[in-house]
Amino acid sequence: xxxxxxxxxILIGVAIVAFAFFKKCNNKTHNxxxxxVQNINMTSDQxxxxxxxxxxxxTQQHGGLYPDQKLQDYIDxxxxxxxxxxxxxxxxxxxxxxLLADPNTINAFALPGGQVFITYALLSKLxxxxxxxxxxxxxxxxxxxxxxxERIAEHEFWKTISTGAxxxxxxxxxxxxxxxxxxxxxxxxxxLESDDLGVLFMINAGYNPEEMIGVMKILKKAGGSNRTxxxxxxxxxxxxxxxxxxxxxxEHSK
Length: 254
Known about the structure:
Layout: H1 2-25, E1 28-31, E2 36-39, H2 44-61, H3 69-84, E3 96-100, E4 108-111, E5 115-119, H4 120-123, H5 129-144, H6 147-168, H7 172-204, H8 211-223, H9 238-252
Parallel strand pairs: 3-5
Antiparallel strand pairs: 1-2, 4-5
């Protein structure tokens, strides 16, 4: 009886794993804006809904919005200029730009569907409008590149695989570890793709793309000597990003 029960568990586990791979193969989506085939299991409308639903919580985590309408208008002006002069305008996403009050966390990020955030801590470090455009252009790149949707699909895939493996054997932790490593690698690729798109958006909007290099130098300085090594981080090392940005400038300036 025990052997029969084990066989059933293994068969169920194999079926779950097979279903996960079948689903992933059928989730292949061509991104017309990056010309890349991605594993995505949601629509653009769902991405927009997730972003809008998550925005209030993310805002609250960073101390709310910065209480200066002039600075917010400044961010909106730059962000909208980048969108309206690029392929971002052709996407179904609703781009909104938010200046967060957080005075300590040097960061900018984007939620799926077009919600873009920059902290006052980062804005205060930037030296000119071109650098602000570089940061916002990079985040618009994450939205257009559908990076969040891709990572959500990847997470769900590995979660399903883990469930199937756990049914057949106690291997869930190993599979979860593999999934985390793959997500880490995708994160680095996402950052580099967004840097490339950010450079393109800057050029299209009339900004100096060289200032994206200035942003990287600011981030490197902010990280200090204890900066996490590239192989332990979801973000590529700033020095490596600078080299890729230089390549992107040469390519998009032809």
